[in-house]
Amino acid sequence: MYRLPTFLTRLPSLSLLLSACTALFLTACSGRRNDGSLTIFGVLYLIVAIAAVISLIKQDWSIGKKIIWGLIIWFFPFIGSIIYFMFSGRK
């Protein structure tokens, strides 16, 4: 009985995580070689971006603020994650 409201409160965070993971795997970054393997820059980008998205999901913010920070992380691949960690005011 109480599982549905709990799931519905987590649904926006889950959709944000799903879209962020999709963005990480579908965006073309310069961290790949011609054969498709990741360079050191690509691996660092993935680690920092995944850490930023996980930190973003754990925050106790409104959905609007999470979406804005998620877009910053997504549209500015490496710099966006660094900006998030420096200026987001995380707890």
UniProtKB/TrEMBL annotation:
Its domain of life reads Bacteria
* UniProt keyword Metal-binding, yes or no: no
Membrane protein topology class = Multi-pass membrane protein
Q: Which stretch is the leader sequence?
A: none
Q: Which UniProt keywords apply?
A: Cell membrane, Membrane, Transmembrane, Transmembrane helix
| Coiled-coil region | none
The record's subcellular location field reads: Cell membrane
Domain annotation Cardiolipin synthase N-terminal: ranges: 47-88
Transmembrane stretches, by residue range? 40-57, 69-87
Looking up InterPro entries in the UniProt record yields: CLS_N (IPR027379)
Q: What is the designated name of this protein?
A: Cardiolipin synthase N-terminal domain-containing protein
Q: Provide the taxonomic classification.
A: Bacteria, Pseudomonadati, Bacteroidota, Cytophagia, Cytophagales
